[in-house]
Please model this.
Amino acid sequence: MPNREKVIKNLQSVANICAVNGDIQSMRTIDDALSLLNADVVPVIRCRDCRHSMMTYDGECKYCSQWIQEGIDEALYLDGDFYCAFAEKKEVRNGS
Model:
């Protein structure tokens, strides 16, 4: 997958070509895409990749150790696709 900067540069080039050719609608669409790419966003860490995501002793479901520490128990058991503000990427260990 191309990196973000390369995609932005390519879209800017195409937008310039559209402007020169008078294709205003395509230029506006590309400008909208560029606005999304230039948004101030952070990567999301899903529960399945979070260091706070723990498995119950019986291996049936996952729970968030950070939520327990914070006293939050409404949604103790988590779906792997869920994410929250406490998320921290798991460290990958070589050879484990």
The first strand starts at residue 53 and ends at 55.
